């Protein structure tokens, strides 16, 4: 757990660092609003959901897109940026395979779909079959990525919202328990000494 906290501290964008960036200055008054950088019960789940959605659907410049999209939905910018790492060089191939399978299942695409001729421009040859498969696979995968992104974002939003409530409730319970324990402890003053 300590390593995760250290990694997050190193990689989480800070408001002060963002303010120094020259390319942010034209719209810094919007991106650097304090409410977008606070960790609240509403902004954190929004940031997690937005980061997951952007991380799965958009294959490049994910942190930039997450930061820009955090503005209209009032999501936590650092959390949204950090959650985009849900896809990385290790997980991206798995996500794309899952997206293709999801798209194929939802669109009811089977192996026979790719065997049909696509017209007169490309004859039924190995190149034509391959091009047809690639264009079909790209469309199916893109549809699957959208479905996976939306479902993952929704699930993570709900899990994070409940997790946040549990975390705050647990914090309050420990605080109350600590106060009750302090009241029950015997006084440390020395009565009757003298």
Question: Keywords for this structure?
Answer:
194 residues, mainly alpha, 8 helices, 66% helix, 0% strand, extended
Structural notes for this entry:
- The chain is mostly helical and 194 residues long.
- It has one domain (2-181).
- It has 8 helices and no strands.
- Helix 4 (43-57) runs parallel beside helix 6 (77-83), helix 4 (43-57) packs antiparallel against helix 8 (126-184) and helix 7 crosses helix 8 (126-184).
Produce a short descriptive summary.
The chain has helices spanning 2-11, 15-20, 28-31, 43-57, 62-73, 77-83, 92-107, 126-184.
Q: What is the number of domains?
A: 1
Helix content: 55-70%
Rounded average pLDDT: 76
Radius of gyration (Å): 25 Å
Main sheet makeup: none
Could you spell the SSE succession in H and E letters?
HHHHHHHH
Q: Number of DSSP strands?
A: 0
Structural class computed from helices and strand pairing: mainly alpha
- Which residue ranges are poorly predicted, with pLDDT under 50 across at least 5 consecutive positions? none
Distance from N terminus to C terminus (CA atoms, Å) equals 51 Å
**Number of contiguous helices:** 8
Strand content: under 5%
Shape: extended
Mind sketching the topology for me?
Blueprint lengths: L1 H10 L3 H6 L7 H4 L11 H15 L4 H12 L3 H7 L8 H16 L18 H59 L10
Helix pairs in contact: 4-5, 4-6, 4-8, 5-6, 7-8
């Amino acid at each position: 757990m300590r390593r995760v906290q250290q990694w997050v501290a190193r990689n989480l964008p800070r408001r002060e660092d963002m303010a120094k960036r020259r390319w942010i200055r034209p719209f810094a008054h919007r991106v650097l609003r304090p409410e977008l950088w606070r960790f609240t019960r509403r902004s954190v789940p929004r940031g997690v959901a937005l980061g997951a959605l952007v991380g799965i659907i958009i294959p490049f410049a994910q942190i930039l897109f997450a930061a820009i999209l955090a503005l209209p939905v009032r999501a936590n910018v650092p959390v949204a940026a950090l959650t985009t790492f849900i896809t990385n060089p290790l997980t991206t191939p798995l996500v794309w395979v899952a997206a293709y399978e999801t798209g194929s299942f939802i669109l009811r695409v089977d192996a026979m779909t790719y065997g049909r001729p696509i017209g007169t421009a490309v004859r039924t040859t190995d190149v034509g079959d391959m091009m047809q498969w690639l264009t079909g696979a790209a469309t199916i995968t893109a549809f699957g990525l959208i479905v996976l992104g939306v479902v993952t974002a929704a699930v993570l939003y709900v899990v994070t919202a409940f997790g946040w409530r549990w975390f705050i409730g647990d914090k309050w319970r420990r605080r109350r328990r600590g106060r009750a324990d302090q009241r029950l402890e015997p006084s440390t003053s020395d009565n009757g000494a003298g």
